[in-house]
Amino acid sequence: MAALIAAVAFVQSSFFRISLITVHGAGHLSDDEIIARSDLYRGQPLNSIRPADVVGRLTALPWIAAARVQVIPTGRVDLLVDERVPRAAMLFRHKYVLLDSGGVALEGAFNPPSVPLISVEGMTPPWVRLGDRVPSRGVRDAVRAVALLPPEEIARGVRLHVDRAGAVIVTTADGVTVLLGSPRGLGGRAAMLAQVLAAIRRQHLRRASVDLRFAGSVILRGQPAALSRGVRR
Predict the structure, then answer these.
(1) What distance in Å separates the CA atoms of residue 103 and residue 125, rounded to the nearest whole number?
(2) How deeply is 85 buried, as exposed, middle or buried, from its count of CB atoms within 10 A (0-12, 13-18, 19+)?
(3) What is the DSSP string of 167-212?
(4) What's domain 2-83's architecture?
């Protein structure tokens, strides 16, 4: 009996309590925010930790897509999180809503974001709830289209619009409008974008309109100069 009491006392000693909580994978959220949401604390008995409950609390944060909990017998608890990455933003009720690649709403802000701004003609979501996907297929299609754009154009700043027919229209930071067309085959047409825009800029063509909707064709409107052989105005 005495041995059993001693064993129980040892299990409940400081050696089996949380002595350190670490966070791995966070970028936007601070370690303190994540630890606070985990509801874990130093001195807490290790045998009271319920990893599934901790994961549930962490993934309730809009920015966290997935989480894992590692409990080390020495008293360290590691919180490993996968943060969502903002890929685009949309205006909703006078706020910019950041969206990840799946159309999940991450955060609302009044200041213009650094990610591409998307809009969908004729679409007004009935609601936007942080941590959930925006209830609009058009918005999700627009976010997927952003992923096909050249990274250097995204870094400069672009706007992407989807019209009522589902056609994608991109406007670059220097005012070039590009008609990319329907989602079908969009990847191939978007792959031409970097080369076409580079040619326009070499010729110092501003406020140009480029039509890439037709396979194998680059149509430049509103400018006197042709890009290359096969280019029509």
Answers:
(1) 12
(2) middle
(3) -EEEEETTS-EEEEE-STTHHHHHTTHHHHHHHHHHTT--S-EEE-
(4) Roll (3.10)
* Under 8 Å between Cβ of 145 and 160: yes
The CATH label, of 3.40.50.300, 3.40.50.10960, 3.30.160.60, 1.10.375.10, for the domain at 88-221 is 3.40.50.10960
Q: At a CB cut-off of 8 Å and minimum separation 6, what does 2 contact?
A: none
Look up residue 141 and give its two tokens: 């299609």
Task: Give pLDDT tens digits for 25-67.
Answer: 999 999 999 999 999 999 999 999 999 999 999 999 999 999 9
Domain regions of the chain by residue span:
2-83, 88-221
At 19, list the tokens: 């002595």
Which residue's structure tokens are 């409107």? 221
Q: CA geometry: angle at 178 spanning 172 and 184, to 5°? A: 125
